[in-house]
Structures
1.
Amino acid sequence: MKIRQTIARTLGAVILTSASVHAETLEEIYNLAVINDPQLGAAQAVFLSQNEVVTQSRARILPNVSLVGQTSNNMRRSPTNPSPAASNFNDHNWAAVLNQPIFRLDSWYRFQQSKSIQAEAIANFSAEQQALLVRVSQTYFSILDANAALSATNAERNAVQRQLEQVQQRFDVGLVAITDVLESQAAYDSSTVNVIESEGAQSTAFEPLLRLTGRNLTVVSALVEDFPIKAPDPKNEDAWVDTAFQNNYSLLAARAKLRSAERGLQIAKTGHYPTIDGQVAWAHNVSGSNNLLGNKIDQRSLSLNLNVPIYQGGGVKSAVKQAGYNLDAARQNLDLVEKQVAEATRILYTAINTDVARVRARLRGIESSQSALDATQTGYEVGTRNIVDVLNAQQSLYLSQFQYAKARYTYVIDTLLLKQSVGTLNPEDLYALSRFLDDKETISRNTATTR
């Protein structure tokens, strides 16, 4: 308990506890990002565009109707009829035509291919939605990580400053040498530089929030101290890989692309196949000239049109070869994605188990560092240790506290990445994580100038 209180005090050096300051939670930031993130917006537009392919390809196998019309003024002269009135007349007509594809394998295969294109678009957009969850989380915990570094450097500088004041007092009464004062001053100057760098890093860590949310957010909530750290469940690496093979969106997109390429090869081969279309036409013609059928003619026709391609200059053969290469590329890409997903899942599964052990070890390391510092300070008081030993022990303690905080944040991100890899990451995971953020402990963007 004493160790946890010490950590909370140290890492809270730059955390504001005023309840009047509203801190943005992970859930609130994600909800803003869904609306304002340009990367997700672009992905959504691409998805909606590709989703129209099904409607367009279906139109190729459905009947289509067209209406055409024409009017023309004519002038005719002949030796037997020189009258201008008899030689000027108007012809006009209109026609309605209905076409129904009857046998067009290329259109049918394109319609089937469009479903695979749609499935690929859905998978890609779903992957982008998961990527937004990860990007929001990484940005948020990068802020917490940068703030932990700033807290540690501030705490170290404050401790070194107190040590410098004590050494100066001891030097003034002749208890220590001037070298102790110089060592303490050098340590204080070095810690001041570290604080300046950490302040800049903490401030810039907030910048991606503007791109994600469209708002200049400057206050976020801190992670609670008792956030649970536990190993992946199930504790079976192969089970996680099997789940990834079923649900990973990159894999689903690659499989859909393979099916689309298979249809593409079928489409290319239909260049040698005949096509049959049925047509119904209604026509009305009016002519101002005299003819054997009269001035007005109504006509209806039913036709069956057959087209048998014989030779297209080698274009069909080339298209078949091209589609075959595309199919081979899709197969190779699927194999690559499967291997990448399996590799990433296994690495993340191992990383989380390592993170769990690391967090526990870092916590014990803080206890050891605190004990070492206490012993070194006692030794310095009795003359068995020098000021450098004390300063090193202080630095080790604050480094251990920062490493503990960083290990916790790394665990959180690795857990989300594992869920992304297996395709199960969803907004509920961020909402659940957001419940472990304490709105009473807020982190404000640093705008101070270190003096």
2.
Amino acid sequence: MKEKMDRQIEQYIANWRDEMNGAELYRLMAKHEKDERLSAIYQRLAAVEEGHAETFKVRLQDLGISIPPFRTSWRTRLLGWLVTRLGVESVLPTLSTIEKNTSGAYLSQGETGEIAATELSHARLLRHLAVTTKGGMEGGMLARIEGRHRAAGGNALRAAVLGASDGLLSNFGLLMGVAGASVASRSILLTGIAGLFAGGISMALGEWISVQSSRELYEKQIRTEEAEVEAAPQEEIEELVLIYESRGLDEAAARSFATSIMSDKESAIKTLAREELGVTPGELGGSAWEAAFTSFLLFALGAFIPLSPYLFLAGTPAIAASAVLSGLGLFFLGASITLFTGKPVLYSGLRQMLIGFAAAAVTFLMGHIIGVSIA
């Protein structure tokens, strides 16, 4: 019985800290949001999180437990740094995932169903904002977006973590495979450099083709929308009416809103592109060259970690140093992923490290077998 009570107390304290961190981050977002309407939404979200924190505080006090001092978590500090440097939009997809995970955790606790529903509603709201804030929000929709959403786009921070992880894992495995074949350290170094550039260039070209193809497809679809606006404006109005009705507007309000948008051709094309294609004319998924350069840089950064000891060491010390640095890099990248998953840092970091070492062990063994066979 005492163990069950202790676990409940620990859970209440963890919930209280999570809600306090959420409130702090939303207040920071409200402070840095230039759109006053959006700033007001983030302020309301902060107030809701504070209310949730107060709920768990009262429960702890009812159990005779004093509230511990509050300290901002590392995740909140990092997300706050992104808000101040890159803008509020940079953290919306990540926050949406965190809110959704929190909702699931509350449901599993059994007695926080109402709070769980609110957190899930926040996740939907943030997913919607992640899309609509890219191209600006129409005023009439702002008050109705909670609980309705579209799929959110990718997140730059997530892409950075995955790109660096790919480079680290692939070059670590490659170097261990060659080291297993008892090749000279100079040859291992040259192999690692080749692996860095080959993998980085491959990633860059793949990203360039992907983004450029998407841009060309979007350009074609936007030209189609322009032609449809010219040829059949009434049909486009009906499409918008259906979209806005699906998000909660009644038919009269949806029709009035759609008709207002279609009265201006430029506004109509931008809106149809956002609503039907999920893109903003002028952006079209970003620059293909910028995406290619970023992919190369992130891959190369990860790939350099296991390679770097071979610049100064040779033989077994170089292999050991490469393994240690790669392990630390893998742990850091695994811990970074918790920004999106909400999992414990130690769990995610160690999992990433073990997966990387397992892959490296397999390639080392295969390299050893092949090296012995050739010899």
